[in-house]
Write a structure and sequence with these properties.
Blueprint (H helix, E strand, L loop, with lengths): L19 E3 L5 E3 H10 L16 E2 L1 H18 L15 E7 L2 E7 L9 E8 L22 H15 L5 E7 L3 E9 L2 H12 L9 H14 L7 E8 L11 H12 L4 E7 L5 H10 L5 E4 L5 H13 L1 E11 L13 E4 L3 E10 L4 E6 L9 E7 L6 E5 L1 E2 L4 H29 L6 H18 L4 H19 L1 H21 L17 H16 L26 E2 L3 E3 L5 E3 L8 E2 L4 E10 L4 E6 L5 E3 L4 E3 L2 E3 L9 E4 L2 E7 L4 E4 L2 E4 L18 H13 L5 E4 L4 E4 L5 E4 L10 E2 L1
Parallel strand pairs: 4-18, 6-7, 6-9, 9-10, 10-11, 23-32, 33-35
Antiparallel strand pairs: 1-2, 1-3, 4-5, 5-15, 7-8, 12-14, 12-16, 13-14, 16-17, 19-29, 20-21, 22-23, 23-29, 24-25, 24-28, 26-27, 26-31, 30-31, 33-34
Helix pairs in contact: 3-4, 3-8, 6-7, 8-13, 9-10, 9-11, 9-12, 10-11, 11-12
Length: 733
């Protein structure tokens, strides 16, 4: 991509300007940034001479040049392989099979390589709590200055840059009340510029009147609804619990509004941080035409969640998909109770939400063979051309082998949803009660999956990875459940229930991102997100921010009193490990033992229940997922210790400490969370080799603060220096 001219970039924000103004000395700035600066200092950031806001004038020539540049970049960044087309007539197909006492209905969308226009209203929480800095921080409690609102703005910028002129966007903020920043606007170059300028004006203050924002957003979509030809969605972004409520509560108020207006827009909710009413957010999504709910614990999840949410919307083939069962009343079962359902004496309706190109929707309904003839089945759905299209489904009672295999996969999917939801519900109602019975059901399901998959069925294998990974971690530890499990589990199980991919991380949901169109959109959305400049922190820290992940400044380490497993099955204290020891689980030989001196003979470390004592930012593997220890506890603990330890191995690059797999130096892993631009590369091994040579080639290396080379902007360690080279600069640029 062509880099913008330096004159296009604000010297305060270091971002491309939207509304440039010029001072009497000829210096140009982003209007909002310089006005904020002058309120605090009253002087020019360039010359330090006195400067008043009244001295500033619009720089129209520069704005025209920037807009031309932005237009050229937008034309390159647009999803050019995904040309927007006029909606063409199409139909879904559906088939039904009767297998082992179940009716299995599978709805198939058409294939396509072009997407249709969309209308989106983003409803953004700007209450005072949105000023709270992101949860991610390093061992010294240094924060990076990114507030929750900064992260929300970055997410919406991704949406803006992904849209084309036929798409429309609206923005509503809410605090004490709702404010409409702009109505549905076509995302032409001018529309995008206006949207980005309005986004920059969002500021945190006041209470959390979520209902007023939700109501205002739905009204915008209703009034601006096109006759045909667009997918519509409301994105609700918030960080907490509403403290202003409608008289009868949020859900009754939303139900009343839906009855009155019959809105068809999908409501997708996004919860930032850990202080959420996640139950309310999911209820809103359920009532919002079976929308999605996503949990965003910190900045590292913004990209993965919003890239997939936008991809799902842009790849939508049909909305408001429902399965109608006409006949005797269908009683709730373990396989159907978690869907939004409407029941009358002779009709049961299951709401399945939207369907994307290339991805099926599946429902299992337990019905006895004797009663099967009493029922009729149909699918009702909306297309971009017309609402309420219908398909009648004939049930096949002699399924083929592939049909049976597909049935088993869907049965495991819904059993996972039911088991996890049952435990979650019990924990919410009685957090201090023993859930051993419910957990035993999960263990039984785990064993059934293992016996069936045998490592050959990829979908069931990845369902098992979800079940034995973060699901069990969230449910078997009370602190973890209270902090993040109560918010994460509804997000994961809703994605499995409605068969949509909501992130790049959980193995099971990756199977729902099917089809050429979905994959192409997602790849290009991901490129747009990663290419955008990192947001300017609203609370200055001086650190440079990489939006893909926040890394701490120092390498992760273990407490010397922990137990590490050797390849021969025995254990050693961490402090007793020697070069040449062979370590489980991969038989890696220790090349270097790295001992880092602790200042004041203490260190802030995370203490995990099984005895592992580890620095907050040393990646560990739980199940199939890499996680940071700091995400598992409320705060690190001050621990007495003179030294902390790490290792460099010749292969494998993980060790098992107190029964938890932990990464070691120079590992080369590229996955999210574990990757690191220095400690995960060969460069750290090369530096250790030089230090070892200076320290007499024993393989035991002592590291102190004075040997660490840090980037002066971010504080991140970028190298290790030889002690005899201390006359060199102590900080690099």
């Amino acid at each position: 991509m062509t880099e913008p001219s330096g004159t296009f970039v604000c010297p305060i924000t270091h971002e491309l300007m939207v509304d440039p103004v010029i001072d009497p000395d000829g210096n140009s700035y982003e209007r909002r940034a310089i006005e904020d600066w002058l309120r605090q200092t009253g002087t020019s950031p360039i010359t330090r001479a006195p400067l008043l806001a009244s001295d500033l004038r619009p720089n129209r020539a520069l704005k025209a040049a920037i807009d031309e540049y932005r237009h050229s970049i937008d034309s390159k960044n647009q999803l050019t392989t995904l040309s927007l087309t006029e909606p063409k007539p199409y139909e879904l197909t559906a088939n039904g099979n009767y297998v082992d006492g179940f009716v299995h209905i599978s709805i198939q969308p058409p294939s396509d390589t072009n997407r249709s226009p969309c209308d989106i209203c983003c409803v953004v929480d700007t209450s005072g709590s949105m000023a709270v800095q992101s949860e991610i921080q390093n061992e010294t409690n240094e924060k990076f200055g990114l507030s929750r609102l900064d992260l929300v703005k970055h997410a919406i910028k991704t949406i803006v840059h992904s849209l084309q002129p036929q798409d429309r966007l609206s923005l509503v903020s809410f605090a004490n009340s709702a404010t409409v920043l702009f109505q549905l606007t076509n995302m032409s170059p001018d529309g995008k510029s206006s949207a980005l300028a309005a986004l920059e004006r969002l500021e945190d203050n006041g209470q959390t009147n979520l209902w007023d924002g939700l109501r205002a957003g739905l009204e915008i979509l209703l009034k601006g609804q096109r006759a045909v030809g667009s997918n519509t969605a409301l994105f609700l972004l918030t960080d907490g619990c509403p403290n202003v409520e409608p008289p009868r509560g949020h859900i009754p108020a939303l139900e009343k509004l839906k009855q009155k207006t019959n809105f068809t827009s999908m409501i997708n909710t996004f919860g930032f941080g850990y202080d959420l009413d996640s139950h309310l957010l999911e209820e809103i999504a359920m009532l919002g035409n079976s929308g999605s709910y996503a949990f965003i614990p910190d900045g590292s999840f913004v990209g993965t969640i919003f890239v997939n949410a936008m991809t799902t919307l842009l790849a939508t083939a049909a909305t408001n998909v429902q399965i109608h069962v006409h006949g005797p009343r269908i009683e709730p079962s373990d396989y159907t109770r978690w869907y939004t359902t409407a029941v009358t004496d002779q009709n049961t309706v299951f709401d399945l939400g939207l369907i994307t190109y290339g991805q099926s929707k599946d429902l299992l309904i337990p019905i006895s063979s004797e009663s099967l003839s009493k029922y009729e089945f149909s699918v009702i759905y909306n297309t971009l051309q017309e609402p309420k299209r219908s398909i009648k489904i004939k049930i096949n009672t002699n399924p083929e082998q592939n049909d049976i295999r597909r049935f088993v996969q869907q049965k495991f999917r819904l059993e996972l949803v039911h088991c996890v939801r049952t435990v979650l519900q019990a924990r919410r109602q009685q957090p201090n009660e023993d859930s051993a019975v419910a957990m035993s059901q999960i263990k039984e399901l785990e064993e059934k999956m293992r016996q069936y998959s045998g490592g050959t069925d990829a979908f069931v294998k990845d369902l098992l990875a979800d079940l034995t990974g973060q699901v069990q971690e969230a449910l078997t530890n009370k602190d973890w459940f209270t902090k993040w499990g109560v918010h994460f589990l509804p997000s994961l199980t809703r994605a499995h229930l409605l068969q949509y991919c909501n992130n790049f991380k959980d193995p099971g949901v990756q199977h729902y991102g099917c089809g050429t169109l979905f994959s192409t959109i997602r790849d290009e959305m991901d490129t747009i997100f990663c290419s955008l400049p990192a947001p300017k922190p609203s609370q200055q820290t001086g650190a440079t921010i990489n939006m893909t992940v926040f890394h701490n400044a120092d390498g992760g380490c273990f407490h010397g009193g922990c137990l590490v497993r050797l390849m021969n099955g025995t254990t050693k204290l961490i402090k007793d490990v020697q070069p040449g020891d062979r370590m489980a689980p991969h038989g890696g030989m220790v090349n270097y033992v790295v001992k880092t001196k602790c200042q004041n003979k203490t260190a802030k470390m995370v203490v995990i229940d099984n005895g592992l004592i580890i620095t907050a930012w040393h990646p560990i593997r739980l199940g199939q997922q890499w996680v940071m220890p700091c995400s598992l506890v409320s705060a690190p603990t001050e621990i007495s210790c003179e030294e902390v330890y790490n290792f460099a191995l010749d292969q494998g690059h993980t060790v098992v400490v107190n029964d938890i797999e932990c990464v070691t130096l120079g590992h080369g892993f590229k996955e999210d969370v574990v990757r690191h631009n220095y400690y995960g590369t060969q460069r750290v091994i090369d530096d250790l080799r030089q230090l070892d040579f200076e320290q007499h080639n024993s393989g035991i290396i002592e590291v102190t603060e004075e040997v660490l080379i840090r980037n002066k902007h971010s504080g991140l360690v970028t190298g290790l220096r030889l002690i005899e080279a201390q006359h060199q600069s102590q900080i690099i640029v």
